[in-house]
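Entry for the shared binder. Reason: the reviewer on the internal report wants the predicted structure included alongside the sequence.
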Amino acid sequence: ASRLSNLGYDIRQEIGSAGYYIDLAVVDPDQPGRYLLGIECDGATYHSSRSARDRDRLRHQVLEGLGWRIHRVWSTDWFRNPDRELRRVAEAIEAAKADVAVEGPGLADEAPVEREAVGGVEENGPDIPEYLLAELTFRMRGMELHTVSRQRLASWIADVVHVESPVHLDEVARRIADAAGVTRIGNRIREALREALGYATRSREVRRQGDFLWRGDMESPEVRDRSNISRASRRLELVAPEELALAVERVVAGSYGIHRHEAPGAAVRLLGFARLTQEMRTRVESVIGEMIQDGRLLEQGDNLIVGD
């Protein structure tokens, strides 16, 4: 901390965010109420077991979900070459200055928390899989999409749902239209797909829940990272409410309680969204309200915890 301070950076120690301890935090000189970077100082002993590494990855994901940008320094590297590691930290700070998050982490006067809060995170493997897009391959042979047999369209619907379940109806239509080389989905195509969906659901390969289609054998979703898919498909309204609720639950469980105001931003970042708009916040808060009513989440003052 002292060596970074000597370089002109404003450093705060033992900063807490959503129940997690951050060793050092670099204050943004242009916005003193915001941190540019969190610095984790790690020893080899703590991270030697797989369970500890899994807990640490989940902790890292939650902190990033809250807007933190994290740089890690290993104690062994620091002891071997402190000048090199100091230079790397300074480079990370300067890079953070050039890419300040739109909705930053907590205020600079947050109260410190104890390191023991890191313990006890579930050890079920924290990695979030990427959202996979279905890739359909077929030849239209001069046919128009709305003239394709409904049974064949139903099989294409099932192919998309098998990969992307739960998936929004509009996304299913777009995958099929893209594969057919169709740029505009008009009324005739929509009607053909609506009829084909009837075939698909009757076969029980696919079931419909609201505006989303699920594999017939899928009972619960998984949280998927959408950061690498197209902007057109990366919209919160295209995320099933069940998947959104699971993202909220995962953030709350991983942080041992999180301020209700912070939960929406953390949840959508787990889903791969870089920004939280007011419209997105409203939708997530609605889901949180339903989860509280169902007992899936509990309120403790301003914080949320997972229900029994």
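Summary line for the report: Strands lie at 11-17, 20-27, 35-42, 70-74, 167-168, 206-209, 212-215, 258-259, 297-300, 303-306.
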